[in-house]
Amino acid sequence: MIHAAVLKRQPITRLYLMSQLDNPALVEFKDVTFSYPGSSGDRVILDKVSLSVPRGKVTALMGASGGGKTTLLRLIGGQQRANAGQVLFDGKNVADFNQQALYAARRRMGMLFQFGALFTDLSVFDNVAFPLREHTDLSADLIRDIVLMKLNAVGLRGARDLMPSEISGGMARRVALARAIVLDPDLIMYDEPFAGLDPISLGTAAQLIRQLNDTLGITSIVVSHDLEDTFRIADKVIILANGGIAAQGTPEEVRCSIDPLVHQFVNGLSEGPVKFHYPGPDVATDFGNPAAMQKGLTGERS
Predict the structure, then answer these.
(1) Listed residue (79, 53, 90) closest to 245, CA to CA
(2) φ, ψ dihedrals at 100, nearest 5°
(3) d(Cα 58, Cα 222) in Å, to the nearest integer?
(4) Does residue 270 fall inside a structural domain?
(5) Which of 20, 36, 190, 269 is the most buried (most CB within 10 A)?
């Protein structure tokens, strides 16, 4: 049963959204360009990128560090604005949202930050209860039931009274996941959910992402460098590189890509389009060259 207070502050939209056959994507990027300003000119992160995130599926965003994966999440959440193009959430351009509309859209999004980002001075229970207390008018008894239900879903109902300093890193990640789903969002974004986890915690986290996505009927975006576990749970994989999309498709389609960069990434090769050495003078020129050495010491430029 849906409580009236929940309906007032958090409209139930998922069944309606899933029925919109004419708009199967919950998130779309249309020719999006984004750059960060720098002292030597703008650093382009995304260059006319177009992609879609299908409803009810797990979409993995992968690629080398600095390729724009976390930036893409910030664009969806409205923390950053695209220089050009459109970022659409449920068919509406995020850049057109006023503050009220943006906050309403964010209430339909859950975010699992790297390493959990729990409030260190709040208990496990209070961390998960925080969004409910902030965004709803629910009674204390109903908040308690919802929090315990979400903690039970991630296997930590018995840890409700512990502090973040008293739980492991893997447990902290699961508490953060319970907090991310406590408002029953339409979209959950995971920023490196497997980083720093032992094999058991990593497997548990991956299984939870898949199970919660299917059980709750939500849409998930997973940013990760963990190839095997991410490929195992993802319905769609998008590889970002050099400001664009190097490959996208099912995990098997991406594994079979003949693109050199994708082949290097999927197989973890040290040599390929992404070079081991940062660009610089060749060895013969650089070593034993007094003039070059002097320029390096004095900061002179040719």
Answers:
(1) 53
(2) -65, -45
(3) 7
(4) yes
(5) 190
- Which residue matches tokens 């919109």? 20
Q: 3-class SS at 64?
A: coil
Per DSSP, the three-state class of 125 is helix
Identify whether 285 is part of a domain: yes
Say if 31 falls within a structural domain.
Answer: no
Domains in the chain: how many in total?
A: 1
Tell me whether residue 190 is in a domain.
yes
43-54 sheet: strands from edge to edge: 43-54, 25-36, 84-89, 92-93
Q: What is the DSSP letter of 34?
A: E
Residue 53 tokens read as 């995130």
Q: Among candidates 116, 113, 118, 147, which has minimal Cα distance to 132?
A: 147
pLDDT (tens digit per residue) in 212-234: 899 888 999 999 888 888 999 99
Structure tokens at 286: 């650089």
**Residue 284: which residues within 8 A CB-CB, separation 6 or more?**
none
Q: What residues make up the domain containing 243?
A: 4-24+54-63+185-298
Classify strands 25-36 and 43-54 as parallel, antiparallel or unpaired. Answer: antiparallel
Strand stretches in 132-173, DSSP E:
none
What amino acid occupies position 50? S
Quick: pLDDT tens for 62-94: 987 777 888 999 999 999 999 999 999 999 999
The separation between the first and the last C-alpha atoms of the chain, rounded to the nearest angstrom, is 72
How many Cβ atoms are within 10 Å of 181's Cβ, its own excluded? 20
Quick one: three-class SS letters along 14-53?
A: HHHHHCCCCCCEEEEEEEEEEEECCCCCCEEEEEEEEEEE
